[in-house]
Each structure stands twice: as C-alpha cells, then as structure tokens.
C-alpha cells in the first residue's frame, strides 16, 4: 500500500506546536519528515511538562512519524548543512519569528534559487509584515487579537480562551493544507511555492458566520456561553450527573423535545411558539427544561432524545471521551512502542483513507538525534563526512536508551 505522500521529503525546522503539528499531518500521510533540532538540548518543548517517563507529553503530542536529526544551529557549518539538505528536499517547514530564517541564510528565496522545486512553508504569529508583523506568536495572544475570545465565555465571565491551543493547531492545519496544494501545483508547473499563514490569519479564517454577521449586518456578536447565538433551545443543559448538549434546529425538533420532556403545554405557549420568542425567553425555557432533565443522567437522556430524533450528546471529560465506545470504535487512540516509555498511547490522525491503512502511527516521537546518521546517509552524505561532522560537534547521534 502506497501512502499518499510517500516519496515526499520534508525538513521540519519547527518548534513548539503550530509547525510540528503541520509537519506531523504531512508525516501521518506518509511524507518522510526529518525533524531538525538544535544542539545541545533540542527544541524548546522537550523541556515542557508534564512528563511521561521523563519525556515531555507536549513534545509527544505533535512529533510522531518523524525522523530526528540533531544539528548545531550556532555554527556556520550546521546552517550550511541544512542548506545542503534543502537541495534534495521537497518541502521545508519553519515557524521562526520573521527575519530569523534570513539571519540564518535560510530564507526561502535563496533556498529556491538552488532548488526551484522546493516548497517552503512559514507560520508566524501575525504575518511577516505589517504593524504587528514582528510580534511573537503566542496562542492566547492570537486568540484575543483575532476576536475569537470575544465570542467565547459568557457576559459574566468575559472573554475566555479555548481550552486547547486552537491558534497553533489551526495555523498548522492551514499550513499543511497549503503545502498539499503546492505539491499538486508543482506536478503541473515544476516549480515550488512559498506557503504562508499565521496564528492570526488562521483564527480569523475560522470566524465564519460570526464574521459574516458583522461584515453583512454590522452586528458585533457577544459571548453566549454554551447557548447558540440565534437558536433556542440549543446549548448545554444540566442533568442528574452533568451537562448535556441539546440541539433543536427545527420547529419539529422543538415539538418532539417538549413532548419528550413532558412539557407539552409549552408547545403552544405564546412565549415559546416559535424560535424568535423562544430565543427571547431562552433563560426561562432553560430553567423549565432543567427541572425535567435533572431526573435522569446525561447518558440516559442522550439515548432517549436520539431515539426521538433530537440531536443530543453528553459533555464528556477526557476520561469519559477516551472510554466512550464511539471514540474507541473510530480508532482515535493508537499505541506504539517507545524506546524510553514502552507502550505509548496517542491520539490518532482523524484522516481516514484506504491508502493510509488502519493505523496512522508508524514511528514513535523521536529521541533527540535518534536518526542523525541514517538520515544524512539517505541524503547522500558519505560515512567519512558524517564521522567528521560528529567529531566536530556539528551533529549528534543519540544512543539507544535503557528501557524505563
């Protein structure tokens, strides 16, 4: 079985989350991703806890299916080696602050002069130019700057960040999508592209209907907490053992819900007769619904409501999520052997296609310098040169660790 990106060589110069996430998406689809880490300590996220047998869970989350090459970025010989490797690479991904690649002599213009087919992908915080172009890229800063935080939370709580690094993850996905488009275009033109995105642009690109409300109608949406901004009843409701999401998108669903909850009298009540008045009276309606919902568990209500054709589902914590039979059925957790940890469970790629087989995990997240010698040999460097680079401290090959 041939993986979709088999034969595509990717140099991953990224760190933290947005760039590694982009490169991992490409690796999951079969690209040969070489993670190039700086000596002596590797990329910054290796030091971020919590740790699994001494290995950063942050690093583990975004670096599977990659080979690892450790190079001393501080030495000109190390940067020259990266430039040399780019001559036979298909893609180079970086997420340094604007100007850093030029300072290292690795700007995309000079790399593509030597290798016109090279696709370079850059992820920044706010773009390479403009008033905020030099700002560092931190997820929560971008969440606030993009307007996303203004839509999340409640009037009482004020703006609230999303519970994961959504700016980093989104930028990584947009960048991977751009790289895939550039690979397809290169098949027609023979020439690579420079793909750019940012945490800011990626989040603004997700504002969809809320952005259109403002652009078309001049409305500035306020945070609605767990309630839908225009539909009622649609949101989170308390049950006997925790919150439940209910989504009644149509008038027929509302009637079914009212009957299911034993609130038949509300169907023709003028306060709830259609969506517009239900939305105006949504707080009262929520209170009436929860008086009924508190009599059963969120799982019982889910099964009952789904059986009546009403969209519903429990709000799970992560223990409940990973124990859920549907999550298990979808194969969203995969296990692989890690040299230091042993059996390592990870979230699987959500992409499914025949060419990717039943498992997206082929290599565990690498140790620093784990594949240095083999990778350089695969790029055509002779053994004596690899030995010389190692002896001078330009590169490092890790030793096989003892199993914890």
- Enumerate how many helices there are, as a single number: 17
Strand content: 15-25%
CATH topology of the domain at 9-206 and 360-396: Rossmann fold
CATH top level of the domain at 9-206 and 360-396?
Alpha Beta
Mean pLDDT: 95
What is the topology, as strand order, of the major beta sheet?
A: 10-7-6-1-2-5-16
Describe this structure in words.
By secondary structure, the chain is α/β, with parallel strands linked by helices. The chain has a domain at 9-206 and 360-396: 3-Layer(aba) Sandwich (Rossmann fold). The protein is 37% helix and 17% strand. Strands 10-7-6-1-2-5-16 form a seven-stranded mixed beta sheet, with helices on both faces. The chain has a three-stranded antiparallel beta sheet with strand order 11-12-13, covered by helices on one side. Strands 3-4 form a two-stranded antiparallel ribbon. Helix 1 (18-28) links the parallel strand 1 (9-12) and strand 2 (32-38). The longest helix is centred in the middle third of the chain and has 24 residues, at 166-189. 36% of the residues are buried. The model has no long low-confidence stretch (mean pLDDT 95).
Observed structural traits:
404 residues, alpha/beta, Rossmann fold, seven-stranded mixed β-sheet, three-stranded antiparallel β-sheet, 16 strands, 37% helix
